[in-house]
Write a structure and sequence with these properties.
This protein is 35% helix and 21% strand. A two-stranded antiparallel sheet has the order 1-2. Strand 1 (40-46) and strand 2 (52-59) form a beta hairpin. By secondary structure, the protein is of the alpha+beta class.
């Protein structure tokens, strides 16, 4: 159970990345993609004070994702 009544508002705000953050996360994803073979899904989370952390990683075929066109 969430500790705050306004948790949905806070979550929405947390899930908006600026263009600089999108570029930064793209660089991190490229580092990961060069380190492991195959197609992977990688999740990141931003901490309050220490930047971005990779928090989860799964083979893409085993990971849920919204429908999208493959490049």
């Amino acid at each position: 159970r969430p500790s705050r009544k306004d948790w949905k508002r806070i979550l929405r705000k947390m899930n908006i990345e600026g263009s600089n953050e999108v570029q930064e996360l793209g660089r991190y994803a490229m580092i990961v993609s060069r380190a492991v073979p195959g197609e992977w899904s990688v999740d990141f989370c931003k901490s309050k004070n220490r930047g971005w952390f990779m928090i989860d990683m799964a083979l893409a075929k085993n990971s849920w994702h919204p429908e999208c066109k493959r490049r």
